Amino acid sequence: MTDMTMDAPEPLDFGAMLKEAGITAGVMLLLAFFMVGFKTLDVTGGIAIEYQFGSVVMVGFLGFVGRIGLILLRENRPFPVLVITAPFAILAILLLLSTIISALFGSAPSTTLRTVFDFFSPFPALPVTVMIYLVVSIIAIRSLIAFLHSRQHEAATASRLARADQLGATVKNLSRFLGPLLLVLAVIFPFTDMATRQYLDIGILVLTYVMLGWGLNIVVGLAGLLDLGYVAFYAVGAYSYALLAAYFGVSFWICLPFAGIMAAFAGVMLGFPVLRLRGDYLAIVTLGFGEMVRVILLNWYEFTGGPDGLSGIPRPSFFGLPFKRYPAEGTESFHTFFDLDYSSSHRVIFLYFLILALAMLTNLFTSRIRKLPIGRAWEALREDEIASRSLGINPRNTKLTAFGIGAMFAGFAGSFFATRQGFISPESFTFIESAVILAIVVLGGFGSQLGVVIAAIILIGLPEAFRDLQNYRMLAFGMSMVLIMIWRPAGLLAFREPTIRLFAKKAHQAGDGK
Amino acid sequence: MLGTYEYFVSQLINGVSLGAIYGLIAIGYTMVYGIIGMINFAHGEVFMIGSFISLITFLVLGTLGITWVPLALLIMLIMTMVFTSIYGWALERVAYRPLRGSPRLAALITAIGMSIFLQNYVQLLQSARPKPMQPLIRGGFEILHSMTPDGKDYIVSLSYLQCIIIVLTLILMIVFTTIINKTRLGRAQRACEQDGKMAALIGVNVDRTISLTFVMGSALASVAGLIFLVNYGVIDFYIGFLAGVKAFTAAVLGGIGSLPGAMLGGLLIGLIETFWSGYFTVEYKDVATFGILVLVLIFRPTGLLGKPDIEKV
User: Fold this and answer.
1) Which CATH class is domain B4-299?
2) Please, what is the Cα angle at B60 between B55 and B64, to 5 degrees?
3) Same domain, A91 and A22
4) Is residue A75 classed exposed, middle or buried when 0-12, 13-18 and 19+ CB atoms within 10 A define those classes?
5) Who among A34, A39, A296 is closest to B83 (CB)?
6) B293 and A288: CB-CB below 8 Å?
7) pLDDT above 70 as % of chain A
């Protein structure tokens, strides 16, 4: 047994394997028994119930088979798993693609694929089918990875984390080139053929979340304050702009800084009493604050329009030139000023660049402020509050600035959101939004600016592209949050290093030429 | 105008039964927090699943012809406790155990992801419409009887249902406290809470203890789900979120990690919410709850019954 040449895997212990798989199947059966086995039906005058035990049995069976697959993977035998799961995964991917293609080009989905799919998925309950296909695809991908790396052994968690760290470091070194490259891509994107209305809208949405992620990164990533109510400041910004525009007719460009100031003020107001609380207490209070803001917006009917929201929010102008086909008498609009043909996409492209500029502003601000004394004080507080206090950093004021500045960027993003939508209601500012923004920051790896972009594309862009799958979108969203965290607990591009070091590394010294 | 005293008493009764629900959920939060230091954000969804399992059991019993209420309630109670515990167990096993020892925020994000997943899972399988249920238990004791000035009777009654809720909650509390204070499992649990590594060294099976913590927390949350169902008569896939947040607030209010604190916090949150709705405005009851939480935390940052922890340098 001490033979370390692991090329020939150890013989399988079939008894233990069957036992483990049997337990999994049992648990799956029990889990599925009520939720899958019975379906409540809405009938007039109450609810009735429908039995779907076929699905339950299938779930149990697949739990058994799936567990055996996972055990085989663990025991370093990915090939049979790959052979069995790959057809299903390919089928699922093909079906997904055909759905997307048919949605994009308006043609009917392929019926042959659909028939094959139906043949291989004999469950009455569609949600179960979808979930099973998701799981099978994941196992297939894992076995493919394992197969490709079959010479290497399952690395221990520590070395896996070290590798992730290494990746983060590599990306950080690359980010000098990667960041500008992405920026250039983002700038030329609207002028390419790919930029249909739909993709531009997705681009705007992703950029909004990137901006929010970068803003929250100041609070969570740099200052280490867990904020679960970030969306409240986003709402404050949005409503500030909407109300100012509605009551005083102030233009977007004047409102933008004002909305930021209002949100920062709200941040300071909240932060003042609560910032001396520790981690989780702070989290729940900020969550409560987010809910409070939403409830107030919902119920202060006279001022905020309650659940109906505010509509008719003025659209932004190109520094005073409106995007209208027929400008008012004696004024010029964007297309007449620049002598272009009128196109409704001008405004969308303008909005795209506006949010790109705002997001880049946030990024620039963050990367600069990290190097200022205040930024260093944030990082010091995050690492050790007591030590930094003993060095004369005022924890409350330092945290307040982080909170206020983070809130300010949310306010900017909020007023952009209001002007883009033209309509806002409390519906847009629920807790789930805060959770999504926090998830972007955490999944990206704290403090990693590029990680936020990648996480935003994964979490916002992809589900948006799969909008046709409706409810399954959120299911996959929750599942992917869990899976990414299990796979990379420190975030996709985790690489946490203080911005400055007391003693520079040797490599840097060598660079200085001594 | 109603008699103020009578009105007060009836609000008090409602508040206590709401508080029982929050308290039962809060215990799950506080235990999990105590033992592995994470906010199990999906615990509210476990409560919601418990509620759905109760409803489905009730419907199945109806088709089987079991309509004698005490028996039906008992079966619902047992079924929901057993099956919801399995959900709690699986939740820990699948989503949280692989993340033990990783950054705290990672666990929180996983929990939020799991919460979103479970909500959509139930929504897809059982549809998004609210599920109504006819009242199971009618009638009650008359505890106060007075005449309003315009000659109408004003009766404050303690319904049988509310009696059952209070008695059930008390029994569960007693059983639960006994488990924690007297049994081997409880001792293991307290040991893990104080120092997991040390407990493992002296032979406590930490993994098993944590699993059982989730099982117990889920069982209590499922009872809260059953109470919610029979008390309010309508559930949907979204009830877990708000109840979860309120219950967590309750746990923090009482001092997170403290079991009597969770119960006290739940009771207080239930009372605050009911009295605020009764005397002021229903719409702002959540604002009042969170406002009071903020106030308590400012003046007593570790909650009402929480032990102040000493920060070591």
Assistant:
1) mainly alpha
2) 145
3) yes
4) middle
5) A34
6) yes
7) 76
Q: Do B125 and A432 touch (CB under 8 A)?
A: no
Within 10 angstroms of residue A468's Cβ, the number of other Cβ atoms is 14
A106: left (phi over 0), alpha (psi -120 to 50) or beta: left
Q: Do A486 and B291 count as a contact with CB atoms less than 8 A apart?
A: no
Q: Which of A39, A289, A443 sits opposite B109 (nearest CB)?
A: A443
Is A161 a member of any domain? no
Mutate to test the interface with B, among A30, A31, A35 (most CBs of B within 10 A): A35
pLDDT for residue A83 is more than 60:
yes
pTM given for the model: 0.83
Count how many domains chain A has: 2
**Can you give the pLDDT at residue A29?**
87
Please tell me whether residues A207 and A130 are part of one structural domain.
Answer: no
Q: Count Cβ atoms within 10 A of the Cβ of residue B1 and give its class: 0-12 exposed, 13-18 middle, 19 or more buried.
A: exposed
Tokens of A302: 């006279």
Instruction: Quote the DSSP letter at residue A218.
Output: I
Q: Residue B142 carries which DSSP code?
A: E
Residues A86 and A192 in one domain: no
The closest alpha carbon to A97, from A111, A109, A82, belongs to A109
Distance between CA atoms of residues A438 and A434, nearest Å: 6
CATH number at residue A232: 1.10.3470
A285 and A141 in a single domain? The answer is: no
Could you tell me the residue range of the domain that residue A68 belongs to?
14-154
pLDDT digit string, tens, across residues B173-192 = 889 889 888 999 889 988 88
Q: Identify whether residues A149 and A187 lie together within a single domain.
A: no
At residue A447, φ and ψ (nearest 5 deg) are 75, -10
Q: What is the pLDDT of residue A468?
A: 58
Let me know if residue A425 belongs to a domain. Answer: yes
Q: What is the mean pLDDT of chain A?
A: 78
Q: Residue A6's pLDDT is what?
A: 46
Residue B243 has pLDDT above 80, yes or no: yes
Measured in angstroms, the CA of A269 and the nearest CA of chain B are apart by 13
Task: Please give the residue of chain B at the shortest CA–CA distance from A124.
Answer: B125
* ipTM of this complex prediction, to 2 decimal places: 0.84
Residue A4 lies in a domain: no
A146 and A192 fall within a common domain: no
Instruction: Give Cβ neighbours of residue A491 (< 8 Å, ≥ 6 apart).
Output: A442, A443, A444, A445, A446, A448, A451, A455, B106
- Bridge partners, A38 (sequence order): A51
Looking up tokens 């508080």 gives: B19
Identify the bridge partners of residue A51 per DSSP, sorted by sequence position: A38
Highest mean pLDDT (candidates A74-88, A435-449, B30-44) = B30-44
- Mark whether A429 and A317 lie in a shared domain: yes
Q: Is residue A109 part of a domain?
A: yes
Assigned token pair, A57 = 């049995």
In this prediction, residue A472 has a pLDDT band, given cuts at 50, 70 and 90, of: confident
Tell me the shortest Cα–Cα distance from B146 to chain A, in angstroms.
35
A479/B113 CB distance under 8 A: yes
Same domain? For A129 and A264 the reply is: no
Judge contact between A33 and B53, C-beta under 8 A: no
**Is residue A125's pLDDT more than 80?**
no
The domain limits of chain B are: 4-299
Q: State the best of A34, A59, A466 to mutate against chain B, taking most chain B CBs within 10 Å.
A: A34
Mean pLDDT for chain B overall: 86
